[in-house]
Amino acid sequence: MQAPPEQLGSFYLGAVYDLETGQRTETPLNYDARDLVTHAVCVGMTGSGKTGLCIDLLEEAAIDRVPALLIDPKGDITNLLLQFPELRPEDFQPWINPDDAHRKGKTVEEFAVATAELWRNGLADWGIGGERMRLLAEHTEYTIFTPGSEMGVPLNIMGSLAAPQLDWTTESEAIRERISGTVAALLGLAGVHVDPVRSREAILLANLFEHFWQQGKDLDLETLVTAITNPPVKKLGAFEVDVFYPAKERFDLAMKFNALLASPKFQSWLQGEPLDVDRLLYTAEGKPRHSILYIAHLSDSERMFIVTLLLENMLTWMRKQSGTTSLRALLYFDEVFGYFPPTAEPPSKRPLLTLLKQARAFGLGVILVTQNPVDIDYKGLTNAGTWFIGKLQAERDKERVLAGLKGALSEAGKSEPTDYSTLITKLGNRVFLMHNVHEDGPVVFHTRWAMSYLRGPLTLPQVRTLMADRLRTTASTGAQGAAAGATSSGALEALQTATLQPQGAPAGFQTTPPAVPPDVTQVYLPCKLEERDAIRVAEQRAGARIEVKGVQLLYEAGVLGAATVRFVDPKRNIDKQTEMALLARGGRQLTGLDWGRAEALPLTASELSTSPASVDERQGPFYASLPEGAATARALSSASRDLADWLYYNARYDVTVHPELGVTRRPDEDDRSFNIRLQQAARERRDAEVDKLRARMEKEIERVAERLQREQQTLATEQARAQAKQTEQWVNIGESVLSFFMGRRSMRSFSSATNKWSQTQQASMRVDQRKQTIARLEEEKQKLEEMLQAEIDAIVSRWEDVLDDLATETLKPRRTDVNVRAVTLAWAPLWRVIYEVGVREEAITVPAYVEPEN
């Protein structure tokens, strides 16, 4: 069949299927992506084609640039990465199951050739070519995460113990729900089988989490173990901690968590990328991502732990998003059995139910997949707007599905007379019944051929093969860092073991700081660069390994200006206040200080000190002379006024805007976050424009279609009349001829025959006129449909590259928005690395008040 035209927001899942004839039709089934915002449930027995349908749906999401987080308990969804656009046998061969080839009586090579041919023919049958397959990788990045294992990309679960970036004032209930879920998951992982809400263990841990998170402090297991033995909170309810939960028993609980921490196996849980939903959904560049959480290798308690943490993090991420009716992202759960049961309350159930109830408001679609619908909580089933129902094995499964459908219809306020029971009974392999509350009625369809190679569940070694390039890049980056560290460490070790000669103060420096009047405030900048890092920087500048003879700490005097500049644009709701710390250093006089050449520093007042850093006496510190005029408060006051003027005339804040969408980059919003929000706004505008266009054009198409239907009905009537007239004509002619041969000539007979012939001709002309009218109406309808599609394509094209239409506008501060808080004399630390080159000594000076470069 011919694949439908590519349309963003429209998922090509297959073709309508006729249950009566047992044949698929040529009508493609396109599913509106926005309908997933109201969630979906996919049920079907093993062999029903359930995995193929879900892979189809995820492929369409990838092409539409919809990010997704995929929970894969069995390893089936890893097949998404088996994409071979060229469909060459050698691409398939590494993934061929030798047992499958043996059962077919073929070698692996022969079976690979047959498989490639099978996939080529299957895709061609559905009108899918290599160009569409290449869109999968072009639009979306795929990553397989293996928490608790290094066979795929490791996942660091400690990120989930970090304090959530939510406001306690407004989000306290949501944060406490996350604490409850996290505590339950941790207790299960540690093998503590108690009530996850009311037990002493859960109450203590929940209070500890709340204590640290309210202060914005992140937690890790080591901190948690220490806090259990020595809690920072003194009372739990009306009782002292030691009364409510005695120290000896707390120590036993701490030992359980410490056993986890000390386990070599658990170290793999502390490595890899952080469990950050935003990073799992988008790359650092803002490209949509399909992140597969492969958990087939984990124990039941470990699976529950990671799934619960993921769902809790997903809830936190969701609540940070703005509301939308367009699809923003997907959460796909391939086999939800055991995580959302109808009676029990595992830690994963509450966050999953919350997502089903609330996620639609934020554009997050949840897709639950199961073989056994009886194992899904009824309240969850009624929240699903779309049902994909495949072949079912047991009668009780069908009854559960029918009960859930009834609940979903009731939730949507619909009454459906369809006999779902009969339809479900007739379903075969790869044939599904789709019930969508956004459509008028159910649809039976045959799933299309998957573009990914459905090889079946992958093992951990196969996952490692798929992720080899990604793991190699990570390992290479780590090795480079280790090599750099080794070089610096080697240079430092040589420095420490060498017999260092005391070095005198360099020219222009002295061992004591210059005297300044008491009304001159002076501060010392922090020494952020360690000696080791200074040696590494010196080696990089020298371009070779150096033989270090000594390291000195120098202080140069400068002027530090601290100010706040506010940029306000009420029209765009921008109110940005920037903290600035500018260091003017290197001049020999303070008069006419050029703040334009000053160095901007990421400093806070708390980092400043009133005394220099402590170093070995052989290293100094040594102090430079003061610039001329710096030793008076009057000079610093003048420098303060100069700074205020310079900031007023030069401080600017660039605002990135999209004029047509009216989207403005928020203060402190990074590129990827802005790009994601801009794409979402463009998608919403695209959807709105397409909806408006459809509403207008489809009325016209419907009007023409109604006329066409009336003309077709009239044509049928006219054709019947013409046929009757023709029959009457031939009967009349026959009578006349008979009369002629019988000798009964009659002019009346011939006149009647002529009259019947005339009536027949007129009826035939009316039929021809109707046919011409129908042809004209069909042509008009086709042109309207083509016009509609062309205008939709134009809208999609216009909103596809929104980044090309960005503009930059500059805000300047008002005079009253410039506030110079302090201008002080500042001592800036520098490391002076002395090394030998042949028979002479040379030195490289490295600023110590800046962070080391990675």
Shape: elongated
Helix fraction by DSSP (H/I, runs of at least 4): 40-55%
Low-confidence stretches: 477-502
Biggest sheet, spatial arrangement of strands: 2-1-15-14-13-3-12-11-4-10-5
Distance between the termini: 55 Å
Number of strands: 26
Residue fraction in strands? 15-25%
Rounded mean pLDDT score: 84
- Overall radius of gyration: 38 Å
Count of helical segments?
22
Structural class: alpha/beta
Major pleated sheet: 11 strands, mixed
Summarize the structure.
The chain is an alpha/beta fold. It contains 22 helices and 26 strands.
Structure description:
With 854 residues, the chain is α/β, with parallel strands linked by helices. 44% of the residues lie in helices and 19% in strands. It has an 11-stranded mixed beta sheet. Strands 16, 17, 18, 19, 20, 21, 25 and 26 form an 8-stranded mixed beta sheet that branches. A 3-stranded antiparallel beta sheet has the order 23-22-24, with no helix packed on it. Helix 1 (50-63) packs across helix 5, helix 18 packs across helix 19 and helix 21 (671-741) packs antiparallel against helix 22. The longest helix has 71 residues, at 671-741. The two termini are 55 Å apart. 36% of the residues are buried.
